[in-house]
């Protein structure tokens, strides 16, 4: 996970998908996000893409509340990671998917935390090489 500079991410990690879905009764929990993790200055910066794709909700205030929960989850997960490389990352929210009944800010907080875990796991793998064209 660590790069030569001791920061995370060691390279861009794009299209990280995180789904938090828990059915323990009614209501249940559902949130899905896709985020990019880009190398940045030593800190955690969060932004919402100008072309954010939102599936399943059209209320801007509700979306903003859930976006804030994603950011909180991301920050919490980095803070809880403790020892290891310092986060030097710009996290860009690219997509959110809502369920009409089961989505709420707490579910998006968990999705944000999962996105960090998924990105940390992806950092263990080498970056994908460009596909070769046959010709």
Main β sheet profile: 5 strands, mixed
Would you identify the CATH architecture? Answer: 2-Layer Sandwich
Total number of strands: 5
* Discrete helix count: 2
Mean pLDDT, nearest integer? 89
Instruction: Examine the coordinates and then state which fold CATH places here, giving the name of the CATH topology.
Output: Ribosomal Protein S5, domain 2
Radius of gyration: 16 Å
Return the string of H and E elements: EEEEHEH
State the end-to-end distance: 36 Å
List unreliable stretches of 5+ residues.
Answer: 1-5
Q: In which range does the helix fraction lie?
A: 25-40%
Strand content: 35-45%
InterPro entries: Ribosomal_Su5_D2-typ_SF (IPR020568), Ribsml_uS5_D2-typ_fold_subgr (IPR014721), Transl_elong_EFG/EF2_IV (IPR005517)
Pfam families: EFG_IV
Domain Translation elongation factor EFG/EF2: 6-124
Organism: Streptomyces atroolivaceus
């Amino acid at each position: 996970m660590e790069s030569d500079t001791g920061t995370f991410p060691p390279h861009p990690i794009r299209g990280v998908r995180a789904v938090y879905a828990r059915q323990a009764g009614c209501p249940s929990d559902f949130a899905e996000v896709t985020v990019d993790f880009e190398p940045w200055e030593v800190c955690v910066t969060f932004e919402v893409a100008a072309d954010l794709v939102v599936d399943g909700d059209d209320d801007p205030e509700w979306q903003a509340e859930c976006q804030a929960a994603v950011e909180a989850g991301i920050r919490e997960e980095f803070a809880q990671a403790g020892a290891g490389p310092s986060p030097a990352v710009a996290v860009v929210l690219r997509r959110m998917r809502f369920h009409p009944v089961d989505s709420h800010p707490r579910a998006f907080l968990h999705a944000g935390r999962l996105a960090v875990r998924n990105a940390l796991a992806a950092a263990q793998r080498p970056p994908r090489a460009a596909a070769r064209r046959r010709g």
